[in-house]
Write a structure and sequence with these properties.
about 350 residues; mainly alpha; 2 domains; three-stranded parallel β-sheet; two-stranded parallel ribbon; about 5% strand; binds tryptophan
Length: about 350
């Protein structure tokens, strides 16, 4: 019944909406950490296309391409299908099934109280978000996590409330439906009923401050991004006019890398050696900002070179990407099916005909 070889490792799961080609901010905020986690945990990473539908249902013209672009970005960034299960949410039917079962025990008030619900309804005034799907968004996310009985969820601060919501749903389910004792466990006198869902914990991933070229947070909506797929000349061209410490008006004015967005990029991408040169050169006005930006461009390009090499391989082979996603969906379905079978048993439903185990 269980996938025994991987039973000993704790499970990690995370997802990302397909929003088009990824930029450095997306990468440092998520993928960079996922790539490292895949070696330590049994890992599931997915493209949350159904989540995209909850708010972008009115125009789905880009969703397929964005999903494939995201897959190429994930693979290029170093997620290795040998080390993790990489899949598209809507390709795994279990992601439609569990939300329906969990919906039965989900109080409406809990959904209405999730902070992003009102916030987004108020902010995204160009979209009609008074839909069942949008209200149910946190429950879909909870299901994503619980389907893999994940122990850890690497996400940024903005998703912490959703993981907290997931923990509450897990607790409520476990209370209503303790799983039936296994024959072995029932022999132990002080045995507590096993729980179907472990309560997942946030794995707060270090996401360093990553400014865009205008000095504000790097974000697609500000048009200040550097894409993982940007070629070298474009990266240099984007960095050249980048905002710097406003105190450095002339070349001879000293500056401070701690108040300079270029300095922030150095802290993320440059070696300690370069960083020392930046601090010395900037505070004594012995280097110019153009030179300093050249160094940060070098560091970013060095980091992106292996990523772009992998990208070329996947971009040239669309079929390979689709095959990887299909294999991933199959593995995910198998693991999620195992959970669904436990869920059905705990609730007391008959098993499915398809044999979801
Ligand atoms: N809600 C997340 C976001 O918008 C994406 C997501 C969907 C997710 N399901 C998840 C993240 C499950 C972690 C776990 O970024
Ligand atoms: Fe910023 Fe570098 Fe110019 Fe200093 S030298 S202000 S760190 S760009």
């Amino acid at each position: 019944m269980s996938i025994s070889s991987s039973d000993s490792k704790k499970r990690v799961l995370s997802g990302m909406r397909p929003t088009g080609k990824l930029h450095l901010g997306n990468y440092m905020g998520a993928l960079y950490n996922w790539v490292r986690l895949q070696h330590e945990y049994e890992s599931y990473f997915f493209i949350a296309d159904l989540h995209a539908l909850t708010s972008d249902y009115a125009d789905t013209s880009q969703i397929k391409q964005s999903t494939l672009d995201a897959a190429v970005d994930f693979l290029a960034a170093g997620l290795d299908p040998e080390n993790c299960t990489l899949f598209v949410q809507s390709q795994v039917k279990a992601h439609f099934e569990l939300p329906q079962l969990l919906a039965m025990i989900t109080p409406l008030g809990w959904l209405e109280r999730v902070p992003t619900y009102k916030e987004q309804q108020e902010n995204l005034t160009n979209k009609d978000l008074s839909t069942y799907g949008f209200l149910g968004y946190p429950l879909m996310m909870a299901s994503d996590i619980l389907l893999y009985q994940a122990h850890f969820v690497p996400v940024g601060q903005d998703q912490v409330a959703h993981v907290e919501f997931t923990r509450e749903i897990a607790r409520r389910f476990n209370n209503f439906y303790p799983s039936p004792p296994t024959p072995h466990a029932s022999k132990e006198p002080d045995h507590l009923p096993a729980e179907v869902f472990p309560e997942p914990q946030v794995l707060l991933t270090p996401s360093p401050k990553l400014p865009g070229t205008d000095g504000r947070k790097m974000s697609k909506s500000y048009g200040n991004t550097i894409l993982l797929s940007d070629p070298e000349p474009e990266i240099r061209a984007k960095l050249k006019p980048m905002v710097t410490d406003p105190a450095r008006i002339r070349r001879k004015d000293p500056g401070n890398p701690d108040v300079c967005p270029v300095g922030d990029l150095h802290k993320v991408f440059s070696t300690a050696e370069t960083l020392t040169k930046v601090y010395e050169g900037c505070t004594t006005a012995s280097i110019g900002c153009i030179e300093c930006k050249g160094w940060v461009a070098d560091a970013i390009i060095e980091h992106l070179t292996p990523i772009q090499e992998r990208r070329r391989r996947y971009e040239q082979d669309n079929l390979l990407v689709k095959e990887i996603l299909e294999a991933g969906a199959q593995r995910a379905s198998q693991r999620a099916g195992q959970t669904l079978a436990e869920v059905r048993t705990a609730i007391g439903l008959l098993p499915t005909l398809e044999g979801g185990t």
